[in-house]
Design brief:
Strand content: under 5%
CATH topology of the domain at 89-221 and 247-375: A middle domain of Talin 1
Radius of gyration: 20 Å
Number of helices: 14
Number of strands: 2
Distance between the termini: 60 Å
Shape: globular
CATH architecture of the domain at 89-221 and 247-375: Up-down Bundle
Structural class: mainly alpha
Largest sheet: 2 strands, antiparallel
Length: 376
C-alpha cells in the first residue's frame, strides 16, 4: 500500500528546530565543542561534547520512534531496543578502538568503558526510576504496574550481576585464576548473556508479547509525523553527529579529569550516563506523572536490562576481536554497587505498587553511590 503523506509531516530540518523542541537549543554545544577543540581547551571541549550528546541522543530516539511506528510492533520494539542505548555503544566502541590503537591509553579507556556501562545501569535503576516513582507518587498516591513483565526483567538483571560477581570474586579472593582466565571466563559468559538476550527478545515480542503490551496505556494510536525516508535520514545524521561528539569526548576525558581534579571513574559512572540518557530519562519521568507506570518502568528497567545483558557483553566480544583485554571484572566497588542497586530495585518493586517514598529511597541510594565514586 502506498505511503500516505500528509501536509503536517515534519521534515528533517523541523526536527532540529529549537522552536519545536527547546532541547534543540543545546545543539549550539556542537559548534562550541569544535571551537574549544580548535583552541586546545580540553576541559571545555569535553564539557560541550558531553552536552551536545544530549539533544543528539534525543533526535536519534525520535527518529527511531518514527521508524518504529511504521515498522510494526515486533520490528519496532527491536529497533527501539537496538537504538535505545546507541550512545553507550558508540562511546564504549570508540574507547575500545582507541585502546586497541593507542597502548598508552588502553588502561584509561578500559576503565571508561566499564564505568560508563555500570553508570548506565545504576542511572536507570536508581536515578531515573527514583525520579519516576517520586514524580508519579507526587501526582498519584499509589501506582500499580504489570508485575509479570517486571519480574522477567528483574531476573535478567540478576543473571547479568552473576556474570559480574564471579570474575570480581575470582580476582579479589586470592583465587588461583590469572588475568587470562578471567578474560576467557568473561568472554564465554558474554556469549551466554547475548544468547539469553536473544531468547528474552523472542519471549517478549513473539511467544509472550501479551505480557508486555502497554498499548492500553496509550491515550490514542500515535501517527507518524515524518516520512520513512526523512526518519532514516535523521537517524543516520544524528548517529554520525553522536559518533563525532563521542570521539571528541573519549579523547579528551583523561585530560579533562586531570584538569578538573575529578576521578575518571566518577566521570564515567555519573556524568556520561546522565548526559547520554537525559532525553530518555525525561520521558520515563513524564509518563510516570501521567500514571503510565508500565511504560515508565519499561523505559527505566528495560534500558538497564539492555545494558547489562546486551551492550556490556557485546563490548567484551568487540574488545576480544580488537585484541583489547576488556573483561566483566569491573572492580569490587562497581560490582557491589550494581548488585545492591538491582537488589534494592527488585525489593521495592516486588509488590506491584509504588509510591513517592520508594522513589526517594532509590534516589538516596544513587546519591550515596555517587559520593562513593567521587571520594574513593
Amino acid at each position: 500500500m502506498a505511503e500516505h503523506v500528509e501536509h503536517s509531516h515534519h521534515s528533517v530540518l523541523d526536527a532540529f528546530n529549537p522552536l519545536h523542541n527547546r532541547l534543540n537549543w543545546l545543539l549550539l554545544a556542537v559548534p562550541l565543542t569544535l571551537y574549544f577543540e580548535y583552541q586546545h581547551n580540553v576541559e571545555m571541549t569535553f564539557l560541550f561534547s558531553m552536552i551536545a550528546i544530549m539533544p543528539l541522543a534525543f533526535l536519534m530516539g525520535h527518529a527511531t520512534e518514527e521508524i518504529a511506528l511504521r515498522a510494526g510492533e515486533n520490528l519496532g520494539g527491536l529497533l527501539n531496543a537496538t537504538f535505545g542505548n546507541a550512545v553507550e555503544i558508540i562511546i564504549a566502541g570508540l574507547a575500545i578502538w582507541t585502546a586497541a590503537h593507542h597502548a598508552d591509553q588502553a588502561e584509561v579507556m578500559i576503565q571508561l568503558v566499564q564505568a560508563s556501562l555500570i553508570g548506565s545501569i545504576l542511572g536507570n535503576l536508581l536515578l531515573v526510576l527514583g525520579l519516576a516513582l517520586l514524580w508519579g507518587g507526587y501526582k498519584h498516591q499509589t501506582q500499580s504496574f504489570n508485575q509479570e513483565a517486571l519480574s522477567m526483567n528483574g531476573s535478567l538483571l540478576l543473571l547479568a550481576v552473576l556474570a559480574l560477581i564471579i570474575p570480581a570474586a575470582a580476582h579479589h579472593t586470592g583465587s588461583s585464576a590469572v588475568d587470562q582466565d578471567i578474560l576467557d571466563l568473561s568472554r564465554y559468559a558474554s556469549i551466554v548473556l547475548l544468547l539469553m538476550y536473544g531468547f528474552s527478545l523472542f519471549f517478549q515480542f513473539k511467544t509472550h508479547s501479551h505480557l508486555f503490551d502497554v498499548s492500553s496505556e496509550a491515550e490514542e494510536k500515535e501517527e507518524p509525523k515524518m516520512t520513512t525516508k526523512d526518519a532514516w535520514i535523521l537517524l543516520i545524521l544524528a548517529t554520525v553527529l553522536v559518533g563525532w561528539m563521542a570521539e571528541v569526548l573519549v579523547h579528551s576525558v583523561d585530560a579533562a579529569a586531570e584538569g578538573w581534579g575529578l576521578p575518571t571513574l566518577f566521570i564515567g559512572v555519573i556524568l556520561l550516563p546522565f548526559f547520554g540518557n537525559a532525553a530518555e530519562h525525561f520521558t520515563a519521568v513524564l509518563v510516570a506523572g501521567k500514571d503510565k507506570m508500565d511504560l515508565s518502568l519499561a523505559i527505566a528497567i528495560g534500558s538497564s536490562v539492555q545494558i547489562a545483558v546486551f551492550v556490556a557483553p557485546l563490548m567484551v566480544l568487540f574488545a576480544w576481536v580488537m585484541g583489547v583485554g576488556l573483561s566483566l571484572e569491573f572492580g569490587i566497588l562497581e560490582t557491589a554497587a550494581t548488585f545492591m542497586a538491582v537488589l534494592v530495585a527488585n525489593f521495592i518493586l516486588n509488590d506491584g505498587k509504588t509510591n513517592w517514598l520508594e522513589g526517594v529511597m532509590l534516589l538516596a541510594c544513587y546519591i550515596i553511590l555517587a559520593l562513593s565514586f567521587f571520594e574513593v
